[in-house]
């Protein structure tokens, strides 16, 4: 943040400016506070753009649509004046740094941050896809999704500047508004964008791929503009991205987003389904590294120390024609007449803002040292410290051994339960063909302490499990869990079983029971659950209709995508992917999810792979929906 200068207004609409947040091709962005004390970001459009009536028409439409976008994964539009001499829009201020600053190493102590770990990348991808669902759902296309437009907060990413970039198209062609002015950021534009073709929602998906690649490596996938804007744009249109350093577990997703053909990219809802629902809230583990969470807390506290500029307590009254001069002499027009009469203020419908109770005189903006600020500073500071402390504690809890007294004291889960467990499911003593897998971590009552996966002949269900109670009637503690389905393949197939019970079994096992089903769970070592090297690579078989069926197996953790399928025949091209369920013994893969469907292309049931004596790969489908298949290695 930078201080205000003589060129900056003191007020924009009803918002007192505090400092500059930045500037760009569209205008300046300010940190501001409402008269009720809410912190907001106000974007003031450039005067030369405001003079273009076509731009103003589009700006009106874009702001109206942006108001309807949900605020879970974006910065909500709170206010705007599209009729002012210099139009502006105010959004909720997001107390978090831009992804570009975190990955670029300019946020935190001495710029100690860089590329994000894989679990953070998955949460980032999920959040970006959810934001696009909201943005596209109201008919907007972002068109400028880049690291500086993605902010990182304690509970997830937030997308800003959605929809507004499209208004710039009104004053020029698809890619330029003025000679030499490019709409969008060259390193994060889609092929259709750099080629001047029609821009649709799939363009934003391409940008998601580019943003994820940058977040994973710290490098632009098609090179930096330092090598020349036109060179970067050529590579976007013609060359393949450099994804060698992107973690295996998310590389396939990034590759699919960066497909040259817009039709070949996954839709945002496919990305959300592919990653599965991401838990949030107090029981969820932090999605960012602990040291970064701590810096976010410090960043939020510093925000509270941003004082209102000197002389900013009173506001220059507007004149009768709706115009008002600020403290520097800069004049902004507003379409809304001033509603103050003497010391009274008309109260808007809905919840009154803080500091403006109904029937009372409105208070000045909250400033450093005021009683109002002193009241809520400790509350926010305590919340920030608690979040940061949680971020530090979680890795200790999940990584400590049974002798770690500190972690044991922080958990209601007995140490012998912590780990990964798997077993075959019985019903009335007879095998059901189902398999159950639990990953149990330390935690407290009411928290999510386990992730459960149930694999059946035709489905896969993933659930989060909260700890309901720990009982010890016979001296051996038993866990009671309440599960919630977070992913179902096929969609709608899975439902929760009610209460689950886990108790010690013989020989170091766990006994699981729920809804008349039982299983003896054996402990697994996740570090050894890797796919044998002889399975890795591409395998192929001819199809009965003269086409080819290719599968590629990659190394990735259990629960991540390891199998990619491509079927090509006279009907077209079909692609699908599937996740690893188990690498213990034979290779067990979950149900496939179709990415690109041609006529006759359908998902398949879970399958088991094993290598034969003649070095071919044999595949059997647990659901019996397809005949067994044999593949030969390619290359």
From TrEMBL:
Binding site for ATP: 43
Ranges where the Protein kinase domain occurs: 15-288
Keyword Coiled coil: no
Molecular function GO labels: ATP binding; protein serine/threonine kinase activity
Renumbered residue ranges of the record's region Disordered: 304-333
InterPro entries xref list: Kinase-like_dom_sf, Prot_kinase_dom, Protein_kinase_ATP_BS, Ser/Thr_kinase_AS
PROSITE patterns: PROTEIN_KINASE_ATP (PS00107), PROTEIN_KINASE_DOM (PS50011), PROTEIN_KINASE_ST (PS00108)
Gene3D superfamilies (alphabetical): Phosphorylase Kinase, domain 1, Transferase(Phosphotransferase) domain 1
SUPFAM superfamilies: Protein kinase-like (PK-like) (SSF56112)
Keywords: ATP-binding, Kinase, Nucleotide-binding, Serine/threonine-protein kinase, Transferase
Listed name of the protein: Serine/threonine protein kinase
SMART domains: S_TKc
């Amino acid at each position: 943040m930078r201080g205000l200068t003589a060129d900056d207004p003191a007020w924009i609409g009803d918002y007192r400016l505090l400092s500059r947040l930045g500037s760009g091709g569209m205008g300046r962005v300010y940190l501001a506070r409402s008269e009720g004390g809410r912190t907001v970001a106000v974007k003031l459009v450039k005067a030369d753009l405001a003079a273009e009536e076509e731009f103003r028409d589009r700006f009106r439409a874009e702001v109206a649509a942006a108001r309807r976008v949900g605020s879970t994964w974006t910065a909500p539009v709170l206010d705007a004046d599209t009729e002012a001499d210099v139009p502006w829009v105010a959004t909720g201020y997001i107390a978090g740094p831009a992804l570009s600053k975190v990955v670029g190493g300019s946020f935190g102590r001495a710029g100690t941050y860089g590329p994000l770990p894989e679990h953070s990348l998955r949460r980032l991808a999920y959040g970006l896809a959810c934001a696009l669902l909201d943005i596209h759902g109201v008919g907007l296309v972002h068109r400028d999704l880049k690291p500086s437009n993605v902010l990182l907060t304690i509970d997830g990413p937030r997308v800003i500047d959605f929809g507004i970039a499209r208004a710039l198209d009104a004053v020029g062609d698809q890619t330029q508004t003025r000679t030499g002015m490019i709409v969008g950021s060259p390193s994060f534009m889609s092929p259709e964008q750099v080629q001047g073709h029609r821009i649709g929602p799939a363009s934003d998906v391409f940008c998601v791929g580019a943003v994820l690649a940058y977040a994973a490596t710290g490098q632009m996938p098609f090179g930096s503009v330092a090598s020349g804007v036109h060179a970067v744009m050529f590579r976007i249109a013609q060359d393949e991205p450099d994804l060698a350093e992107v973690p295996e577990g998310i590389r396939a997703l990034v590759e699919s987003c960066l497909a040259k053909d817009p039709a070949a990219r996954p839709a945002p809802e496919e990305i959300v389904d592919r990653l599965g629902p991401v838990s949030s809230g107090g029981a969820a583990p932090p999605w960012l590294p602990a040291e970064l969470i701590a810096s976010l807390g410090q960043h939020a506290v510093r925000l509270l120390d941003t004082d209102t500029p000197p002389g900013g307590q009173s506001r220059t009254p507007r004149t009768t024609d709706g115009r008002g001069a600020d403290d520097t002499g800069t004049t902004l027009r507003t379409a809304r007449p001033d509603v103050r009469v003497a010391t009274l203020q008309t109260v808007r419908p809905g919840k009154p803002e803080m500091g403006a109770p109904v029937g009372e005189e409105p208070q000045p903006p909250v400033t450093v040292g005021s009683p109002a600020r002193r009241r809520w500073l400790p509350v926010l500071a305590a919340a920030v410290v608690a979040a940061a402390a949680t971020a530090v504690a979680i890795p200790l809890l999940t990584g400590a051994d049974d002798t770690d007294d500190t972690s044991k004291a922080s958990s209601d889960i007995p140490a012998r339960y912590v780990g990964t467990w798997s077993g075959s499911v019985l019903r009335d003593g007879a095998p059901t063909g189902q398999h159950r897998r639990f990953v149990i971590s330390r935690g407290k009552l009411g928290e999510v302490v386990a992730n459960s996966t149930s694999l059946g002949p035709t489905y896969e269900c993933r659930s989060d499990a909260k700890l309901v109670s720990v009982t010890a009637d016979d001296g051996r503690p038993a866990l009671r869990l309440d599960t919630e389905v977070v992913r179902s393949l096929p969609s709608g197939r899975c439902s929760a079983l009610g209460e689950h019970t886990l108790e010690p079994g013989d020989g170091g096992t766990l006994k699981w029971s729920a809804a008349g089903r039982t299983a003896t769970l054996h402990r697994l070592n996740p570090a050894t659950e890797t796919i044998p090297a002889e399975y890795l690579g591409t395998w192929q078989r001819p199809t009965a209709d003269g086409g080819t069926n290719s599968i590629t197996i990659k190394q990735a953790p259990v629960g991540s995508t390891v199998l990619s399928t491509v079927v090509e025949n006279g009907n077209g091209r079909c692609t699908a992917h599937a996740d690893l369920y188990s690498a213990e013994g034979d290779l067990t893969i979950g149900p496939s999810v179709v990415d690109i469907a041609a006529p006759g292309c359908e998902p398949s049931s879970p399958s088991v792979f094993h290598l034969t004596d003649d070095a071919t790969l044999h595949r059997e489908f647990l659901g019996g929906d397809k005949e067994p298949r044999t593949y030969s290695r390619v290359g």
